[in-house]
Design a protein that fits this description.
Blueprint: H1 5-24, H2 28-41, H3 48-61, H4 65-78, H5 83-95, H6 99-112, H7 119-152, H8 158-172, H9 175-183, H10 186-193, H11 200-214, H12 218-228, H13 230-237, H14 242-260, H15 272-277, H16 279-292, H17 300-313, H18 322-327, H19 330-339, H20 356-369, H21 374-393, H22 397-412, H23 415-422, H24 427-435, H25 440-453, H26 457-475, H27 480-493, H28 510-523, H29 529-542, H30 546-553, H31 556-567, H32 574-584, H33 595-603, H34 617-629, H35 632-639, H36 645-659, H37 665-670, H38 673-680, H39 686-702, H40 705-708, H41 713-716, H42 718-723, H43 731-745, H44 749-757, H45 760-765, H46 773-786, H47 790-797, H48 802-809, H49 815-831, H50 833-840, H51 845-853, H52 858-874, H53 876-883, H54 887-895, H55 903-918
Amino acid sequence: MTINDNDVDAEALTYKDKGNEAFKSGQWKEAIKLYTKAIQKGENHKDAPVFYKNRAAAYLKTEDYEAAVRDCTESLRLSPRDPKALYRRAQAYDALKRYEEAYKDATNLFKEDPSNKSVQPLLQKLHALVQERVAQNAKTSTKVKEMMELTFNIENPTDKRRLGANNLLVLGKEDVGADLLFKENCITKIASLTKIEKDQDIYVNLIRLVAELCYGSIERTKAVLVELGVPWFLRVLDHKHEERVTAAQHCLQTIINSLSGMNNKTDSKPDKELCKLHNKEIDTLLSCLVYSITDRTISGPARDAVVELLTRNVHYTALEWAERLIEINGLHRLLDVCSELEEYKYESAMNITSSSRTIAAVCLARIYENMYHDIIKAKFTEQVEEYVKDKLLLPDMESKVRVTVAITALLEGPLDVGNQIVAREGILQMILAMATTDDVLQQKVACECLIAASSKKDKAKTLCAQGVEILKQLYRSKDDGIRVRALVGLCKLGSYGGQDAAIRPFADGATLKLAEACRRFLIKPGKDKDIRRWAADGLAYLTLDAEVKEKVIEDKAAIHALIDLARSGDQSCLYGVVTTFVNLCNAYEKQEILPEMVELAQFAKHHIPEEHELDDADFVSKRIIVLANEGITIALCALAKTESQNSQELIARVLNALCSQQELRGKVVQDGGVKTLLRLSLEGTDKGKRHASQALARIGITINPEVSFAGQRSLDVIRPLLNLLAQECTALENFESLMALTNLASMNETVRKRIIKEQGVSKIEIYLMEDHLYLTRAAAQCICNLVMSDEVVKMYEGKNDRIKFLALLSEEEDEDTAKACAGALAMLTSVSKICCSKIIEINTWLNILHTLIANPSPDVQHRGVVVILNMINSSEDIARKILETDVMELLSGLSQLPDESRAKAREVAIQCLAAAEHHNIIEKSDEAEIPDVFQESLKIEEIYDE
């Protein structure tokens, strides 16, 4: 069966029509998907220009202005001088602050359609801006020339040149300044100056300036790449100066982002069309990075920066570059870094840092995550096996040592692959043999590999049988490096029972003795960081035991030592320190034990996990408070820079445990935890994102969001909170998210608009229908604050049952729910006649009004009577319908009620009677002084710790 062109054309038009429907209902992202399908199906359709300009309109709504410009440009290519395409591109250019281009489009549109009223105000605005820009450009141009002369003339004093470089960086952050700098051949001058510049402050600012010139501009980015070339970036990256390396790494990432359509936000996704268009440049850039991994001439920090760049960009959520990296032999290069030892200093040795092997292991794990089917996984494993085999074929002991170190990195990264290698015949025997030699280096690497290999319970049992005696023997070594590693091996094998108090693989008291040994290594003066790091690893395993937790938390010296290790930011310390904190806070994953399952297990004579009495909630809370007061938040923020998603999850778990204690939330904010949590809530594992989002919600409940989420953060936190409204999240997570969103919605219109833009209203409304009192109440309170937005009012005016649902919920027995719904109705009816009419259209509207007037709660009654007043004032027709019923008598009775707790409702009832008199529905009575009713008084107050 064949599909003819008519069928394809009809399908394209169907998608366009569906896109129009989605657009009208405010589902912008869905509209974009549908218009994209229309474009794909109707590439040669006569309405193709319409498909593009419609998608551009949806992109404008989602504030993706670059995409809107591209679509309008394509529409105008197919249909030149189309008024709507010109207008939408002018709007997009305006939003991007490309005012000259916007003005040109608006002018062309005015020439095409002088009677178009919508373009006239835009044209006037742009004319003023362009004139202002011309004047500003003249001033900026002078400033640019002055600062370039100051910076690039090496005969000037260094302090003045530093000031000039700083000012150039500031100028480069603005589009006008960036354009002028580019036209003044700033890039050429930077290329020349960086060959001879000695001052690192000036050097770093010049690199940052290149990044600013590339930011958000594909045209400038491509020109920079042509002018400087990729080798220039690798040269400026190659240094030990931390700020310079970081600036160069950021610059390279900015270039990748510009070419691929990503930005610096954690949840940014590439634009597939841009990636396809710039595939050659992206491939060249990333290939050069891969080849530089094993460059023997670059510094250790530069190597780490290169591997981190690859880690960020190989994932399927970024540039999907993992498969290509395998094709160009990238795995072998990463394994070379993993196998490098600082102890072996030979002519061709690579410079590495203490974090290099950890960073490379994380990159290998990230690549393996992208091996999404068995054939590619097999290819990955095949290359690793090939690398190991080649090393083992060499006769020298150095090769065997290095391959053992590489295997250790695999066990710390892509664990499945590492386990496959260890399972190969002879590998484990080789490692055990190395552990029994007299060579200290072989003993060290063998110990490390045994520790990594015992990551799973079944392997731990095997190693218990074969390796415990060897580890005990090594623990008697005179070398502290050997002793501490052997100690960690014993700790790990002794902890495989986890938090189950019933499983004790070693004799009673042995874990406490091991913990004391770890503590001595951790706090002993003069011990190098490597030994202290291994001691922390030992505690990471032992602190699964509740008795050890209590010993550690009472030991201030040990806690300080752990926090100092974390503050160093050394990635090799990450696992031990963070895992110890997770265990101390009991923030690990807990298996829910149902009573029925316990009975079934007892009947079947299966083992039932037991929780230790020292892991009760009171003990856990005490440990969390101690850690917070010792400054754990600052330490976690330093470690959170890792690219390891599993480690990010552990950090999020600990921060969430801190936020579970109400009195600690302010300290988390004070110590900079919010910034870290915002990043962790948008990247990493699903569980990690949930923990970080829940921590943010808890902060938003307790602390005024204007303090905790100041400035841009009040907008950035909205998406993580809305992510907690997913069905797979727990009721507690849903509830805490709704409470935090309620507080945010009370801040200002900008925040409310962001909630609306993120499709928050519909996500929140779902919980109005939950059969859960607290969820329904929290959702109602959140909606009550959101209806202060005109956009939400329009939603409630649409063809839907939203008003009806609020009205029915206002009859709820729960006072807080009824109060929130009645308050929302009061605000909606005060600004919308349509909402007033929709209440009358409800079959049970009279019963609803009866319930509101006679409500036992004074607050609900007050809001209900305000609703009635708004309805009476909205139109004479509605007023007559209401006042023809017994509502008038109820209001008359309420107006004479002596109960002072209902004074507000009584005053509004008097207003209702006055309004009825105004409509000549009832006879005029003695006038009473009628106070104003303020809409603002009806909004839900911020919810702090209810």
